[in-house]
Amino acid sequence: MYPFVATVGKELEELPITPKDMMMNFCLDSIKTVVLVTAVDYLTEHIKEKYNIPKIALLNPGEVEDWIITQQKPLFHLFKDIEERIGVSLTAGGVMKPIKSRSGIVFPNDTGFLSCQICTQLKCPGRRAKYDPELQKQYLA
Fold first, then answer.
1. Where does the pLDDT of residue 130 fall: very low under 50, low under 70, confident under 90, or very high at 90 and above?
2. Where are the beta strands (DSSP E) in 1-55?
3. Element (DSSP H or E) covering residue 36
4. pLDDT (tens digit, 9 = 90+) per residue, 49-85?
5. CA–centroid distance for 39 within its chain
6. What b/e readout covers 47-61, taking b as 16+ CB neighbours within 10 angstroms?
7. What is the number of structural domains in the chain?
8. What pLDDT shows up at residue 27?
C-alpha cells in the first residue's frame, strides 16, 4: 500500500483572475483538473513500474462511507511537513487546500476494482465505473 498526496499547487490557485471573469475561471478550473489527474496518473504508473505491480487501484478519504473525509488527517501525518513541501493543508473538516488536491492510497489490485464501483456519489463528474451496490456490500460489510 502506498499513501499519497497530490496537488496542482498554490501557483495555479493564486493566479490573479477576477471572480467576474467566468470564462477564464472555467478554463482555469479545467486546466487544474487536467493537471491533477495527470499528476495522479503519473504517480500510479511510476508505482507500477518501480515496484513491478501490473494492476493497481486507488482509494481516497471521503470516497466511501467507511473512510470519511475527516480521516484524511491521519493520512497527512504520514508525510513530514506536507504543507511546507507541496503546499497542501487541511481545514478542520478535512477539506484540502488547494481544492484541486487529492490524497489516498494506491494498492495492488488483480480484480479490476475501481473505487467508483462502491462510491454512492452517482453524479460525480470523475466517475470511472458504474456504481455496484452488491460489490459495495461485499467490500464494506
1. confident
2. 2-7
3. helix 22-50
4. 999 999 999 988 988 778 888 888 999 999 988 999 9
5. 10
6. beeeeebeebbbbbb
7. 1
8. 93
